[in-house]
């Protein structure tokens, strides 16, 4: 990234020794290499500025006094701006001096009648600027993606931790007293059997059987609850996720009742929309509105993110597949500014009537 380009310093060093360039280009080039490496390897505001100004001076001077070909050394500057000073704004003093260097390297166009030289200089400056800004945007996108990935990872970790705590508490509350009762009942049954009170021992064993049967049912309910959240729970989870992601959420909801299967499908659809919102939308705010009309439940999800570049009809296919089983629908009402996605699903009663 930084060091491969140093190979190009061989050319001014060689030409200064061969006599094609003035000999003073040799020590200037050595100082250029030292300044460049110091900028790469060290960080000190004062020295950074001094070394930067020297690099700008060198590129301008050797281009004007040596050869127009030396304008290629402007790539050293663009490389540093792209990677070493990636936090600088395009209006910073380094960028301004870089623009001045490019203008200075274009001066030979005014004094040279060689068309090939003019084309070369213009091409070099355009390529240098184009590559720098392209790499700058690429780095910015990669940085945003990394931040999103880190944020998503932390959100997933927190959610998993909360879920583990909840599961642990549920199991403790459900099974803790069950095992205590089973221990007492089994000890009592053994004691009764030792005293040949078999009828009473049989009653205790029957109680043990009933306790274990009820415990199994409660465990099944816990496992089922892990698979599917209620709509209220899912909205709360979604609110926590968006808060961790720095997205403001507003929920407007009417009181409504629906079938369990429809609620589960709607819950999973909201979960997927929430994940997409966090990972891809770059939104800062989101609004969810739940309404009921004529036996249909409508969910409108709106955000101020980047939206969809082009709507082909293939978007949100997994949500569509999930809702179609219950005659539900999903539609992109607005692709961007704001992005609006609408979910429609019939209440349980309507679905059951239509399926008979």
Automatic annotation (TrEMBL):
Keyword annotations of the record: Kinase, Membrane, Transferase, Transmembrane, Transmembrane helix, Two-component regulatory system
A GO term for molecular function: protein dimerization activity
Any Gene Ontology CC annotation: membrane
Keyword Chaperone: no
All residue ranges annotated as the Signal transduction histidine kinase subgroup 3 dimerisation and phosphoacceptor domain in the record: 163-227
Coiled coil regions, renumbered to chain: none
InterPro entries hit by this protein: HATPase_C_sf (IPR036890), HATPase_dom (IPR003594), Sensor_HK_TwoCompSys (IPR050482), Sig_transdc_His_kin_sub3_dim/P (IPR011712)
Top-level taxon of origin: Bacteria
Keyword field contains Kinase: yes
EC category name: transferase
Transmembrane annotation, as ranges: 21-39, 51-81, 93-111, 117-135
CDD domains per the UniProt record, alphabetical: HATPase_UhpB-NarQ-NarX-like
Reaction(s) this enzyme catalyzes, per UniProt: ATP + protein L-histidine = ADP + protein N-phospho-L-histidine
The Histidine kinase/HSP90-like ATPase domain, residue ranges: 263-312
Species, as recorded: Streptococcus cuniculi
Protein name: histidine kinase
EC number(s) from the headed UniProt entry: 2.7.13.3
